[in-house]
Specification:
about 200 residues, alpha+beta, Glutaredoxin, five-stranded mixed sheet, 9 helices, 5 strands, about 10% strand
């Protein structure tokens, strides 16, 4: 009986470790004890996602994230191969801070790199953005060849689809409730304030 109990305890610990590991793969910034969690499911080739990030994220960071009031999570929801490869390159960065800086550059320069249908050309343009933030071409090539990174992102997308029934990007959740209002900071801020 004791052996069976020990076996179940080990299985339970492994399960918790795997869940923690899976959760830690989500790109997030802000206190884990924040009263408000904003989850954004987005595709890096989606202009509406870039608009959300560029018009809301920096204000949110200054006013709420940096003060420990809001936790922000970027959930990869690639709609095409270019978006998937851009996500892989973002994850190539070593630190969370650098990942967010690269994410911001990817969104800012979306019209520069997310053009055409030649994936090799698109990858080269994504790598140009990456090299501007201290990533080497060799490192990015290595990351792009790593199928486990792509699998991880696609599995997260499948899980998000099942859980949140995502129909378009960006899909924004504030404390697990879908945000459906206008994408402008003034409107968004009102919802954040209501949840604080």
């Amino acid at each position: 009986m004791k052996k069976i109990n020990n076996f179940f305890i080990i299985i339970l610990l492994i399960s918790f470790a795997l869940i923690a590991k899976a959760h830690s793969k989500i790109l997030s910034i802000g206190s884990s004890n924040a009263k408000v969690t904003v989850k954004v499911f987005s595709s890096l080739t989606c202009p509406h996602c870039a608009n959300f990030h560029n018009s809301i994220f920096n204000n949110l960071k200054k006013e709420y994230i940096d003060k420990g009031l809001v936790r922000f999570e970027h959930h990869a929801f690639p709609l095409d191969l270019a978006a998937l490869n851009a996500e892989v390159v973002v994850r190539c960065q070593s630190s969370n801070d650098k990942k967010f800086r690269l994410l911001e550059e990817i969104y800012k320069k979306q019209k520069f790199w997310a053009v055409g249908s030649d994936i090799d050309k698109i990858n080269d343009l994504i790598k140009e953005v990456g090299t501007s933030l201290d990533l080497t071409e060799d490192k990015m090539n290595e990351c792009l060849k790593d199928s486990s990174a792509q699998d991880e992102i696609l599995n997260q997308r499948i899980e998000a689809q099942k859980k949140y029934k995502i129909e378009s990007t960006p899909t924004i959740m504030i404390n697990e409730k879908k945000y459906t209002n206008k994408i402008d900071y003034k409107t968004f801020k009102k919802i954040i304030e209501k949840n604080l």
